[in-house]
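Q: I have four molecules that I believe assemble together. Could you output structure tokens for the complex as a whole instead of separate predictions?
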Amino acid sequence: MSSSVDRTNNGQGNQRMTAKSAPPGLDIFLRKLLSHSPLTDDDQAAIMAMPHSVRHMEPNSYILREGDRSGVCPILCAGFAYRQKSTQEGGRQIVALKIPGDALDFQSMYVRTVDHNLQALTAVDLVIVALPDFEKMVATRPAIARAVIVDILIEASIGREWLLNLGRRNALSRLSHLLCELHYRLLDTRSEGLDARDVPMKQEQLADLLGLTPVHINRTIKKLESNGAVARHGRGIRLGDIESLRRLADFSDTYLHRNNRAG
Amino acid sequence: MSSSVDRTNNGQGNQRMTAKSAPPGLDIFLRKLLSHSPLTDDDQAAIMAMPHSVRHMEPNSYILREGDRSGVCPILCAGFAYRQKSTQEGGRQIVALKIPGDALDFQSMYVRTVDHNLQALTAVDLVIVALPDFEKMVATRPAIARAVIVDILIEASIGREWLLNLGRRNALSRLSHLLCELHYRLLDTRSEGLDARDVPMKQEQLADLLGLTPVHINRTIKKLESNGAVARHGRGIRLGDIESLRRLADFSDTYLHRNNRAG
DNA sequence: TTTCGCCATCAACATAGGTTATAGTAGGGT
DNA sequence: ACCCTACTATAACCTATGTTGATGGCGAAA
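A: Yes, here they are, computed for all four components at once.
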């Protein structure tokens, strides 16, 4: 159920290579940071030179568990992951969605215990940096420290928008909003957003994301499809018309703080 | 509609006093930071010595608006406030609740524009520190910098728990959960939690907090009351039995990271 | 003391979304 | 080429919460 080899587009799933051979994935992390924070060439080189190992994980495997004390900072370089919490009665809620380039756990640098579960959504490739190494870099390089904080703050801002989504939007708007967000977030590190590829979540996972049931997600997708906002390719959902989606979702990307730098 | 004088328990609502006369409110902020982060006497003194002004604001007044560029770090020393976002169709969602001792806007130190509205819930007394002054302190004193980040992370953790609340708990559990949270958060800076005082929110505001309607909040309060979990004093709601509430809410305080220090 | 306005209360009805259960279908593994 | 399993689809029915609108009472201000 964990750590086999390959099986992602970049076909790069090896183990424990502490080297910097080919592009091992840190580049997309760097691109992500640069999308919201400026870094000197020197800082950029420092990031690319971090000692790290590479790890491949299968869909649904746990990357971090509630209550853990993590000693490691995993970075998602291929595939998707999510943070998730559950109710005692078994209700499951996805509370954050992580895409390629995202760091998965800055929090453990500052706080002792992990307060949620972190799971692979698809097959994922992780770059794993030891926490002390990361802390050293942050302590040495203020611009990187700042970028880390900005990253944390943007995730928090996304969380606030999700609260608005869950609290005050109906199923159709919620789903549309999620698709818009995913599209624009993908554009921060790549040239295409959701256009070319299928939405990476199954209907059950969409339900857990949006506080709905799979049955109702199914109904809602069909409504979106009949609108032309979304297209189906077999089981997959693909972007139909982003402008329709934005309208349905009441979407504005300011909460993503794209290309932001502080005063 | 703003800045008149006094009208809060500490009766301390003046303007622009850059002095450190009587206890002006920074002490409760310090206590809040100490509740999750250790600080040397020296660091503590530095915080208490920050140049600041004091500001009183009436209920419902805006402390910060979406789109603003803030130059100031307001600290809530008496009263309650909340962050709020709205849908174009007029749906209003409270996305964070701030209590005495909380800093209201660390975010503006790192990111250009404010992505939500910050409003006074009750009459409030604010201590206002100029952002450059705060930045200077954070740049000089690593322990304070770390405390600020921990504070940001705890707010984010609370946001995740609220997502679980909105997405996967019914009205009764949601309300119970909120009351539990408020109780324990108040205990971080004071000796009594919610025991002695009324819940500071009106039913409409509870509705905006919990993604419900005022009518349904009313129904739910009555159910809680018949359980004995909550008591009424006139219009006010007061804690009845915290253990019942915890049970109804499926509450555990680990997400609040009380008394936490990182490795 | 009276007035006035804001809140809380309550009831009757409406609906978005939940539940359960039964097919159907794609696609990987053999 | 086949099977198996996991996902999707759909229908019928159910319920938590929303909506609207009428009533009543507390508390601030005059």
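A: One point stands out. Residues 36 and 259 of chain A are 5 Å apart (CA to CA).
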